[in-house]
Amino acid sequence: MKPSKPRKNQNRLSQLLDFDTDTRQKIVQERDHPVAHLIGVDEVGRGSLIGPIVAAAVSMTRPLSTQELALLSPLNDSKLMKPAEREALSACLTEGDFCHYAIAEASLEEVEALNVYHASLLASSRAVAAVLKKRDNALMDKTLILIDGKAMMPQYPKDRQLAVIKGDSHSACIAAASVLAKVYRDRLVSQWGEQYPEYQVYQWQNNKGYGTAAHLQAIQQFGVTLLHRKQFKGVKATQTQLVF
């Protein structure tokens, strides 16, 4: 789905929330399905050279209060936000009572066995399943899953899903999911840096495991770790392996 142009004179959060409302109404009209709840899902880590893929799913449980609207006003595609903004939004989303959320992983082993594409869908389906479990009043036939990108999850009916191109820039629930997934994975990578001081040569605290020039140079110089995705370009060619 290609998002329509936002209405004029709206702030960013209003545009995101209106997109979700308009999408719900459009699906009801086009598919003749009741839509009681939306679940937004997004993942992070597909292009990283290390670790798992992380996905988050978010479902708003009620309209936001004036105070909550103010707290969530910076909401956007997580890649466009500053780390401090993401951290503050993550705390607001996880500590408030206005949404159900879940965070799930596809492990390093699953990424290597399934490939990035299928591992991303697996992590996303796990996050959605966890939210559906929390929303025990939200049956699948009354739920619409909004997915960032073009692919849909084979674990759920196609008519209960909608792929939204650049969804984390258009949908409030997808944007919220992108923030939770990004903050969770960034913290995970930072923890590895603290747990394994030897890994500091790869500068993960700065590149989060992505293939920057400094990261690729360190791989060539020191070899790969147990956390590297061995089949990825830039990693696969290096035979030396460090074991910590």
Can you tag this structure with a few keywords?
Nucleotidyltransferase, domain 5, five-stranded mixed sheet, single chain, 14% strand, globular, 244 residues, 2 domains, alpha/beta, 5 strands
Briefly say what this structure is:
This protein is α/β, with parallel strands linked by helices and 244 residues long.
User: What is the chains' assembly state?
Assistant: single chain
CATH topology of the largest domain: the name is: Nucleotidyltransferase, domain 5
Termini separation comes to 45 Å
**Estimated share of beta-strand residues:** 5-15%
Total beta strand runs: 5
Overall CATH class of the largest domain: Alpha Beta
- The number of distinct structural domains comes to 2
Low-confidence blocks of residues? none
| Main beta-sheet strand count, sense and barrel state | 5 strands, mixed
Q: Find the structural class using helix and strand composition.
A: alpha/beta
The CATH superfamily name of the largest domain is: Ribonuclease H-like superfamily/Ribonuclease H
General form = globular
Mean pLDDT across the residues is: 90
**Strand line-up in the sheet with most strands:** 3-2-1-4-5
Instruction: Please report the number of helical segments.
Output: 8
Radius of gyration: 19 Å
What is the percent of helical residues?
40-55%
Description:
- With 244 residues, the protein is of the alpha/beta class.
- The protein has 2 domains: 12-183, Nucleotidyltransferase, domain 5 (2-Layer Sandwich); 196-244, no CATH class.
- Helices cover 42% and strands 14% of the residues.
- The chain is built from 8 helices and 5 strands.
- Strands 3-2-1-4-5 form a 5-stranded mixed beta sheet.
- Helix 3 crosses helix 6 (172-195) and helix 4 crosses helix 5 (116-134).
